[in-house]
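Anyone? Bumping this.
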Amino acid sequence: MTDYKMRPVEGTIHFDGAQATKGFNFNKMCFSFNNEDARQAFLADPEAYMEKFKLSEEFKQALRDKDLNKLLELGGSIYYMAKLAGIFGWNMQVIGGMQSGRTTEEFQAYLDSQGRGKTTNG
Amino acid sequence: MAKIIGGITTSHIPAIGVAIDKGLEDTPYYRDLFAIYPPIREWLNEEKPDIAVLFYNDHGLEMWLDKKPTFAIGCAPEYENADEGWGIKPIPPVTGETELSWHIVNHLIENDFDPTVCQDIKVDHGATVPMTLLWPNHTYQGIKVIPVSINCERHPMPKPSRSYAFGKAIGDAIRCWEKDAKVVVLGTGGLSHQLDGPRAGILNGDFDNYCMDKLVSDPQELCKFSNVDLIEKGGAQMVELAMWLAMRGALGEGIPEERLRNYVSPISNTGVGVQLLIPKD
């Protein structure tokens, strides 16, 4: 039998069919946050909103804890989790810091440490 | 006959759209990035393409996980965009070009590519940020756009070699369209970045520049990579190289002239590359 499992990459969870299956309801909820009314409804009553999308208790607790790595492990997709940023006022450096165990400032410094400035032939 | 007059690669990161909204183009953080766009716009103003074929990836606006096409092509007279949840202001609709869209669809299916055909889709920042960068202040409304999306969100994603071949088939379709039209092809997204997990924040400027070199001279080298290879080298979202490869495929097999290049890193969490390639006749 052919094995289509992807080669593991450290610190990375490949968002594949197995993850997408586990995370479908959560990602569906996050997808709803494209709509401003939905964002307001979540903020007004997060527990009721999570229940409406039938999230598992594990998902609910991870979201209450804002534990992004746990949400990824449970099947969250970063593209949908990014829509939480609008609700909680995060940007991608805040999110990067939360996931890599750094403050936002430390995460920015980490990005800058790999930076290349400008290279151009234009 | 229609002619492809150039290919442009550009990032589409939302932070760039927000920077435009807030007028931050000339601040120290953004200055080097935005510096490349005036010469590209100058080229566009001189060459005046009629149509832009735009390779992008949808990030959960129109094509979410319930029905996620691997390859999709727009065949609509107009494309709206909308609130994505975190702050870029929607822009006025982009004009479509249905006749060439359907010609490409016919050509693709005749040549064994089977994309999802979309008569009514919204396009997200993957398409609107590049349009705003290249045709600022809503001047893009003078150009007709054909959006072509590639799944970069959920594995399995198309292999890099397949995205290149898909782009090549679209290039062939454009070149055999009987109408006189100048077409520019846009490859958006990339380069190195990873948004998710403990490895978030990885950048790889050496690899980004290697990819930009090979994109010009020898794209087949890039087609040897698997998506996992790209993830290892440039982070989980390095797979967006798919759109660059599709653009390059559309230019045809000869080595194009690299008219302009810019690389700035980091912008937001991303190594940002921009290139203008001119195919040789």
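Late reply, but here is one note on the structure posted above: Chain A has two domains: 17-89, 91-122.
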